[in-house]
Amino acid sequence: MLDDATASSLSSLSLSELCEEVADQFKARFGDEPCWMVAAPGRVNLIGEHTDYNGGFVLPAAIDRYVVIAAGPSADETARLVAADIADEAKIQVRGAIHPGPVMWANYIQGVVAGFAARGVRLPCFNALLRSTVPLGGGLSSSAALEVATATMLEAMLEEELDPIEKALLCQEAEHKFAGVPCGIMDQFSSVLCQQDSFMLLDCRSQSVELIALDAPDITILIANSNVKHELTGGEYARRRAECETAAQILGVATLRDATCEQLESFREQLGTTNHRRAKHVVGEIARTLEAVQAIRDSRWQDVGELMYASHASLRDDYEVSCAELNLLVDIAQGIGKPNGVIGSRMTGGGFGGCTVSLVKTSAAESVAESLAEQYFQKTGIQPTLFTTRPARGAHRIK
Ligand code: GLA
Q1: pTM over cut 0.90
Q2: Is 187 a catalytic residue?
Q3: DSSP 94-117
Q4: How confident is the model over 39-58, as pLDDT tens digits?
Q5: What residues line ligand 1, using a CB cutoff of 6 Å?
Q6: Which helix (H) or strand (E) segment is 228 a member of?
Q7: What single string gives the DSSP state of each residue in 161-196?
Q8: Which residue's alpha carbon is at the smallest distance from atom 2 of ligand 1?
Q9: 87-90 — which CB contacts under 8 Å span 24+ positions?
Q10: In 3D, which of 348, 363, 351, 303 has the Cα closest to residue 324?
């Protein structure tokens, strides 16, 4: 049986409920209605993992979990921020030389403010209150959602919209400079550019986007959060990036996007075991992503599922960014299998914990979630968090 915690984790506040609560909390804290309200979603990547910083393809969708910010003008010299979920407050600078401050969550906002300031924009001072239904640190881009929500709030204040690609890149730069994470472009592009009912095929080399409709009501995206996080510093992520760059250099290509399987074989010795395996994952994953797009277009869902399992195996064995708990979730899903409504499953996001993404038959979503939760808990003693989602709309202004 699903216990109450698992059952309630399948649903979350709707966007409109969340916005109502955020507006009320803003009023209670600052005394006025907010002037501006914005929402930016997290994302789930269906396939195309650790390919973005190699100039490859990714296939994420926005999820219906959001960072919502309510804001109003203030007469102060600094901006006052309230993170209502954790009952914490911080002040950030909006003018002059802007540097990372002591409060980690506020730095994501500070970094985006700095990006606007660097473009020569004079920002008004403001009070802001934020909440998030994107699980924190679960590989669903909670930090990109916070950055993109901030950029959307500043656009609303300035009554000026940035070019969407410029906006996503500004947010990525904030993550690099103010959070110290050398991420690729997938997460911020997803939060800005994803559209309802579609996956977004992003070519990370040309930065061009194509929407791939998910218009099959009988297919549902099920996200399972392992509720473990093994890697806290981002060191492994930076190491993988460096290994890919070294491999590309040895192969004599600009990025691994330009490498072929044949090249990898003929340079096997020069690459050495580790770099060869890293590059093999990337080259294979880029091909799998394009194959998955074609399979979705043709409604060949079992093929999509097989590609997801192959992606997971490659991330586990060659790229080495999975962990026991993620492998277990994927194994359990695969064990539940086709006859019981599971189409495919894999880890999603950077890895070392966080979430898996599964495609399941809509009619079986509840029973699959129940049995995943039960078996995972039995083997680990950890309650996972599960929820279903449809591809959601990217960041937008609410008010
Ligand atoms: C993190 C990064 C992304 C991407 C994924 C792995 O989410 O922020 O840029 O590299 O890992 O696909």
Answers
A1: yes
A2: yes
A3: -SSS----S-HHHHHHHHHHHHHH
A4: 999 999 999 999 999 999 99
A5: 49-50, 52-53, 183-184, 186-187, 349-350
A6: strand 219-229
A7: PPPHHHHHHHHHHHHHHHS-----SHHHHHHHH--T
A8: 183
A9: none
A10: 351
